[in-house]
Write a structure and sequence with these properties.
It is built from six helices and four strands. A four-stranded antiparallel sheet has the order 1-2-3-4.
């Protein structure tokens, strides 16, 4: 067998080997494949997704309270009385209000938080702060954060347009009480404690003033 024929057979064998290897890696394609069509929007022109949202429950409400509860009904009526009101937005503000009011009370700095307190709550806070000062006591506190926050109740008075929302907090902070000599007689500056509160805020819906007032505190 002459040399050119041997070379041809060798090259043919290499070509067959390469074809088989490509098939094992890439798979096979039979015939002409059309390019993939652009993904079509399977939603109908009637926009059923919007219909579900419009006809279904308000997630801004049912994400926080039971859909069939009195609180859910009250929140819905608040939103009708003031369309710009949002439950999630309210809870975001309530989170910030908790730190501001709690730390103002702990440090005895009531002037800054007075606009956010009802008259009864302010008077109660003031009495406690005055009693501490009379005994020469001071509180050193540092707020760490809100560990838990949930909406527990809501009511709405149609006649007066007065809304009330109760929020449960679990806050984390350090707090220590010092006597007149500066000695710590209660609490700790290094040991974190958890504080549970249920605060009720009130506001007349539709008014220009967007601030809610704290009208009641409890556990």
């Amino acid at each position: 067998m002459n040399s050119p024929l041997i070379q041809l057979l060798v090259l043919a064998g290499i070509a067959v080997f390469l074809i088989l290897r490509l098939k094992s890696v890439l798979g096979t394609r039979d015939g002409f494949e059309k390019p993939p069509l652009p993904q079509q929007d399977t939603r109908s022109s009637s926009r059923p997704d919007l219909e579900v949202i419009e006809g279904g429950p308000d997630r801004d409400i049912v994400d926080h309270v039971d859909e069939h509860s009195d609180a859910a009904d009250a929140l819905a009526r608040m939103k009708r009385a003031e369309p710009s009101f949002g439950v999630a937005d309210f809870l975001g503000g309530a989170r910030g209000a908790y730190e501001m009011i709690l730390m103002g009370f702990e440090r005895g700095e009531l002037a800054e938080i007075k606009p956010f307190l009802s008259e009864d709550v302010y008077e109660t806070f003031a009495e406690v702060v005055e009693a501490r000062e009379a005994q020469g006591l001071t509180i050193e506190a540092e707020f760490i954060g809100v560990r838990e926050l949930s909406l527990v109740d809501a009511t709405f008075d149609e006649a007066t347009r007065t809304a009330e929302i109760s929020v449960k907090y679990v806050g984390e902070l350090t707090s220590a009480v010092r006597d007149s000599s500066g000695e710590i007689i209660e609490g700790s500056l290094t040991q974190m404690k958890r504080q549970k509160d249920v605060w009720t805020f009130s506001r007349r819906m539709g008014e220009d003033d967007p601030n809610w007032q704290l009208i009641a505190t409890g556990e």
